[in-house]
């Protein structure tokens, strides 16, 4: 086991819960924010800069007012929180930790063994802020392999267990019980999609900006984040959709060129195998084949496989005439639906009208990866705290 933070692990395990949005925690996180934003290396990692901006005191105070502002609710931490972070997004664990600290919980976080510079830089900022805030007895970040003994120790000690690692990790921890009164929060494997109003897109003067936003949603983590669209729906008439597709994918290729995006070695072979596998299962046809962009047209709703597993710039696309067709293509595994056009209200109406179990987030293209404390329909602050009516 490797402890990344300069913490007293034993004291963290025995630390008491605090009231939510305690000023000492807000001050500590603001200090972490300043240390992140004032480090020159941060500019190399947009996700780290976004985290630093999120942690500003002004932002956290605004969020806190949303939970405590009416003065009718008192929120208190549950106790020790044990977080199991995912391996696909470097700083996902940091937002889980922040939510837990704001909710009033001392926290132990297990991070992925995959090396990410952003993780090291975030931990450096935490360590630098510990002394001034005396918070080293409330945060411990660990890196260890498949150590069942450590998993059992932390699970049997915790009051809150948060698992971000997907289906397989959830299954692994299912055999490790937590105390009867402990709260568990699970985040299973999820997939995301986008819907583009073809006419609205063609009439906009922001085609280049939209392509950049879509690129930001997809390519920074090689399309491996659960928020990255893997399926694109085109809404409108066929002739309009054909024009919109041609313009959109062309703009995206130009965006990749400007960004000097370099696909990983062997991506072409992996995409070819994915096309072959999909062709066996459902009617499809290839629309675009490019070193870092493969687009496959799904000819039926059943061909809209969100779990096809391909990434690194691999998309299924399908034309629809009305939003109601989404209900046949998107199941409960769909997490985020990003949109282009004035569609949000209509999408939410569609979700309600068809009783869709999936689609937990409806956001504009370009913001799919932006974190919120309400994630996948779960209010993390409220789930991580105890609520008292005043």
UniProtKB/TrEMBL annotation:
BP-aspect Gene Ontology terms: bioluminescence
Record key words, sorted: NADP
Pfam family name, one: LuxC
Top-level taxon: Bacteria
InterPro entries membership: Ald_DH/histidinol_DH, CoA_reduct_LuxC
GO molecular function, one term: acyl-CoA dehydrogenase activity
Protein's name according to its UniProt entry: Acyl-CoA reductase (LuxC)
Biological source species: Tritonibacter multivorans
């Amino acid at each position: 086991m490797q402890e990344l933070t300069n913490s007293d692990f034993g004291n963290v395990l025995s630390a008491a819960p605090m009231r939510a949005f305690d000023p000492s925690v807000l001050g500590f996180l603001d200090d972490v924010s300043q240390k992140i934003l004032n480090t020159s290396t941060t500019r190399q990692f947009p996700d780290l800069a976004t985290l630093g901006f999120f942690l500003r005191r002004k932002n956290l105070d605004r969020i806190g007012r949303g939970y405590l502002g009416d003065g009718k609710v008192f929120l208190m931490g549950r106790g020790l929180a044990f977080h199991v972070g995912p391996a696909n997004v470097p700083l996902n664990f940091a937002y889980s930790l922040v939510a837990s600290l704001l909710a009033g919980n001392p926290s132990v976080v297990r991070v992925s063994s995959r090396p990410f510079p952003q993780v090291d830089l975030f931990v450096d900022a935490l360590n630098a802020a510990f002394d001034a805030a005396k918070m080293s007895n409330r945060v411990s970040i660990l890196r260890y392999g498949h150590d069942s003994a450590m998993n059992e120790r932390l699970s049997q000690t915790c009051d809150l267990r948060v698992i971000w690692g997907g289906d397989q990790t959830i299954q692994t921890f299912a055999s490790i019980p937590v105390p009867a009164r402990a709260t568990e929060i699970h985040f299973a494997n999820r997939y995301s999609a986008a819907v583009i109003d073809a006419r609205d897109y063609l009439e906009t003067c922001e085609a280049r900006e939209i392509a950049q936003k879509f690129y930001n949603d997809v390519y920074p983590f090689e399309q491996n984040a659960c928020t990255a669209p893997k399926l694109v729906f085109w809404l409108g008439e066929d002739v309009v959709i054909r024009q919109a597709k041609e313009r959109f994918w062309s703009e995206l290729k130009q965006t990749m060129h400007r960004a000097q995006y370099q696909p990983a070695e062997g991506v072409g072979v992996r995409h070819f195998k994915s096309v072959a596998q999909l062709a066996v299962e459902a009617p499809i046809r290839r629309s675009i084949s490019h070193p870092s962009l493969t687009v496959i047209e799904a000819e039926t709703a059943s061909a809209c496989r969100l779990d096809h597993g391909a990434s690194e710039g691999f998309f299924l696309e399908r034309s629809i005439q009305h939003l109601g067709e989404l209900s046949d293509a998107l199941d409960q595994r769909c997490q985020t639906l990003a949109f282009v056009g004035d569609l949000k209200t209509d999408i939410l109406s569609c979700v309600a009208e068809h009783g869709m179990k999936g689609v937990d987030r409806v956001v504009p293209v370009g913001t799919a990866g932006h974190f919120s404390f309400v994630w996948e329909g779960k209010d993390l602050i409220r789930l991580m705290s105890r609520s008292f009516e005043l």
